[in-house]
């Protein structure tokens, strides 16, 4: 391999024998080297082969602005996630997650924290991705000695959810169908209460996000054990109109929902209709 560009002493852009561009990292791999020099492949520790051209270009720009140790750290997190999830991840994860974690560490140094309002949904419906997020926090603390809050595990989980490809329900046709169904459900809520929903509100964002995860889970035919029968009975009485609205949604879906699904939908309806 021949060096095409040197980002710093520990990261370079190389070209292999088939003229493919590859980002490689390793301690001192670019030290006292010049463009056109032959790469010492014994120094390679991490290799990035991004097949999507746009993702590759953005990743190269990222390397010019972000500390190499952050890039290396995110590489380890992504590789760990791939092994645990056993699915293909979109190349953009190397751009989006790396940029996110680097910026989060910068904010942490400034004493700033960004709470994630979706942590409830993520922990409940994407527990595997959330657990990976928690493990990522351990990686980050081990490398940087910075203990990030649990909300950050949720942020990392969201990046992993968005990056998963070749999963059932992740094609254009199904996404369009889900978007229509979400809109239909929002209309059921609006007409039941005869109100316009505040689309800029946090509760609206939570409700829509819950519905997206809800449909993805239905597509994967995942079932949740009924654990909250007692809570549902209380909610039926306390939020009677929201519960009745949920039943209309269940009829629209033509599907018997678990007690837990009914509970969460009812609570979201109550929140989104009460400002």
Automatic annotation (TrEMBL):
<dbReference type="InterPro" id="IPR004341">
    <property type="entry name" value="CAT_RNA-bd_dom"/>
</dbReference>
<keyword id="KW-0677">Repeat</keyword>
<dbReference type="InterPro" id="IPR036634">
    <property type="entry name" value="PRD_sf"/>
</dbReference>
<dbReference type="GO" id="GO:0006355">
    <property type="term" value="P:regulation of DNA-templated transcription"/>
</dbReference>
<dbReference type="Pfam" id="PF03123">
    <property type="entry name" value="CAT_RBD"/>
</dbReference>
<feature type="domain" description="PRD">
    <location>
        <begin position="65"/>
        <end position="170"/>
    </location>
</feature>
<dbReference type="GO" id="GO:0003723">
    <property type="term" value="F:RNA binding"/>
</dbReference>
<dbReference type="InterPro" id="IPR036650">
    <property type="entry name" value="CAT_RNA-bd_dom_sf"/>
</dbReference>
<dbReference type="InterPro" id="IPR011608">
    <property type="entry name" value="PRD"/>
</dbReference>
<protein>
    <submittedName>
        <fullName>Transcription antiterminator LicT</fullName>
    </submittedName>
</protein>
<feature type="domain" description="PRD">
    <location>
        <begin position="173"/>
        <end position="275"/>
    </location>
</feature>
<dbReference type="InterPro" id="IPR050661">
    <property type="entry name" value="BglG_antiterminators"/>
</dbReference>
<dbReference type="Pfam" id="PF00874">
    <property type="entry name" value="PRD"/>
</dbReference>
């Amino acid at each position: 391999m021949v060096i095409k560009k040197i980002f710093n002493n520990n990261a370079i852009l190389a070209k292999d024998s088939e003229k493919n561009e590859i980002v490689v990292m390793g301690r001192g791999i670019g030290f006292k080297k010049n463009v056109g020099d032959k790469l010492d492949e014994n120094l390679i520790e991490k290799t990035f082969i991004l097949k999507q051209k746009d993702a590759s270009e953005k990743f190269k720009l990222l390397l010019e602005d972000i500390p190499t140790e952050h890039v290396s750290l995110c590489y380890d997190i992504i590789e760990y996630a791939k092994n645990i999830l056993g699915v293909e991840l979109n190349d953009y994860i190397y751009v989006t997650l790396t940029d996110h974690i680097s910026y989060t560490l910068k904010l942490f140094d400034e004493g700033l924290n960004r709470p994630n309002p979706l942590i409830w949904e993520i922990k409940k419906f994407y527990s595997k991705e959330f657990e990976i997020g928690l493990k990522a926090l351990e990686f980050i603390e081990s490398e940087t000695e910075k203990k990030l809050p649990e909300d950050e595990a949720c942020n990392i989980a969201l990046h992993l959810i968005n990056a998963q490809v070749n999963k059932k329900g992740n094609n254009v046709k199904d996404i369009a169908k889900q978007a229509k169904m979400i809109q239909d459900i929002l209309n059921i809520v609006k007409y039941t209460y005869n109100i316009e929903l505040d689309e800029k509100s946090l509760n609206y964002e939570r409700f829509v996000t819950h519905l997206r995860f809800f449909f993805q889970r239905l597509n994967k035919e995942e079932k949740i054990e009924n654990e909250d029968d007692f809570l549902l009975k209380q909610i039926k009485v306390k939020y009677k109109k929201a519960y009745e609205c949920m039943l209309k949604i269940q009829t629209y879906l033509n599907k018997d929902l678990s007690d837990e699904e009914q509970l969460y939908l009812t609570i979201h309806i109550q929140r989104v209709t009460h400002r």
